Amino acid sequence: MLFELQAQCATTGARAGILHTPHGPVETPVFMPVGTQATVKGLPQCWLEQDLDAKIILANTYHLFLRPGHELIRELGGLHKFMSWPRAILTDSGGFQVFSLSDLRKISEEGVLFRSHLNGDAHLFTPESTVDVQLAFGSDIMMVLDECLSYPASHAAAQSAMERTVRWARSGYNHFLRRKEETGIRSSLFPIVQGSMFADLRSACANELLELNADGYAIGGLSVGEPRALSLEVVETTAPLLPENRPRYVMGVGMPDELPEYVARGIDMMDCVLPSRNARNGCLFTSAGKVIIKQSRYRNDPAPLDARCGCYTCRTFSRAYLRHLFQAGEILFSTLATLHNVQHYLDTMRQIRQSILLGTFPAYLAAVRAAGSV
Amino acid sequence: MLFELQAQCATTGARAGILHTPHGPVETPVFMPVGTQATVKGLPQCWLEQDLDAKIILANTYHLFLRPGHELIRELGGLHKFMSWPRAILTDSGGFQVFSLSDLRKISEEGVLFRSHLNGDAHLFTPESTVDVQLAFGSDIMMVLDECLSYPASHAAAQSAMERTVRWARSGYNHFLRRKEETGIRSSLFPIVQGSMFADLRSACANELLELNADGYAIGGLSVGEPRALSLEVVETTAPLLPENRPRYVMGVGMPDELPEYVARGIDMMDCVLPSRNARNGCLFTSAGKVIIKQSRYRNDPAPLDARCGCYTCRTFSRAYLRHLFQAGEILFSTLATLHNVQHYLDTMRQIRQSILLGTFPAYLAAVRAAGSV
User: Which of B110, B143, B147, B346 is most enclosed, with most CB atoms within 10 A?
Assistant: First the structure.
């Protein structure tokens, strides 16, 4: 998988590039909408492709492994065909959800034993099996199984989890290389740098993982309860340890005003459930800040949600109508709100990318910092 | 409101026409999708207009009166503007929901006193006030307040309710004519023929209401628990009592294979929550009959829901994917399923209309009867 660097900000190191995946090019920096169960909640695929022009989405291995099952998805031609999504898909390893959703998880050197949150069935994820599950999906970018700790964690616990993460990454990556040789698939597998908030562990982890010479690298173990300044600090120290000519992916971030901060620290890829989850809860991101749509001030507000946004929701409906849909618990609210919030995220990333290409990213970042709270 | 009759089936009396509303022409016979709370549940307006090409939808006065309130909708420019729907809207009087949803309703000659199902607040609907509420909406077609009984009802109860319905229709209609003179609006108000399942009462009611010389007439009091053969029988005896040169609307029906049966009895307009409600519950109407999508037979079914349907859902997704979305409780299921079911209803009506224009309706009807259960 070729990563083509197009421009780099001389001041911050922010990068603009193109990641060439088996399902088309992805301009970076990129925000990947989350399609947990093979759907970005509330959004039809045609909107995601045509209106939003998303080039890559993320799906969750844990959820799809449990339902409908990776063998069913393989039988139906893979995840792209199953969900009718012709562009790139990144899947996580399932590890994060095992640690956050499932009961009775038990970690051993072999892998992680867990019970389904749906029906209590026991399953084992190993570094090899999660690769095989993702191969059944046909994901463009797969992630290695890692051990992810919550915050705070002791140095000893973080070191132990990091070392296991490295061992699992090696096993998973070797398994992936064998499968790649057998099948000729063009997918990539990204290792994940762990180490909690400890710079020495992050550094050691990155050094070990570099030996795999992977097509890209992720920074995991963030958005687990730590203060956001700390997440940025960890990324700031970790990103420079990763290869310049490979995409760098921070998993599970962030708020809209954090996107340029991660880009300023050399990050190329991000994902987060915030735009879609907050949309369903009535929290809308606009160019003028957050709109909590249930507030009575919007009761008779004829203005569009965001006059500077070009999405169908903002072109067509008033805040008063959106508030009515929210108050009435209407499905259409989730659809219109998610469309807008995802558009806001993708537009933000497109503006960031454009400013890097034009050499104006430092001014863009300064404006966001002046307006925002980071 | 001009109703232009274009063709009539010599065998059955089925009619094809065009109803010219203030918000555009409506080809009849027509099925009106139900947009209870100013949204057809799950469907974006652009799909309703462009994909489905619906020319008229129905909205519920009771619901919109309670939330967001008719004065708010008036302030925001009326219901068309509020919900961004540029085509025709028919609103009911609210009476049916008062009788089916609200607590503590108390009927008097003045009107019906009821408590909101949302917060228990007391409200009074009168024949005049429900006209005023619908005028605030700016509905193209408004309905008079009627007294609707459940099934079965005694002849005495049905007569009393029918007579009150006639008196309310007169008061409401006179009020409407005064408002029309004051404001110059071009909307229409349709009276509703009641009389439960009694032919003499239906006939007496129709005769009284004809004096109003309204732009159209409805047959109400059906779909209240009676067997479907009886609903058809009541319509068969009532429809011929209504003026030939005005549209005839049967409220609240029906199943897909009933649509041509009502048309065969001289009906021009219908509405029903079935296509949208059943969609959300996983019951899908196809050219080969009902599909209950949760059934395990669809687990790995790569076929489209209905190979003969041209909707986005059928063009794009497999039954296996739709089943997965349903099982996972995903919002997208409701959207895709509703799109399909409404398309199935609208396509059915378009085929019926076309067959009337071509003079082949009797053959169409015979084929439906041979295939179906009516």
Answer: B143
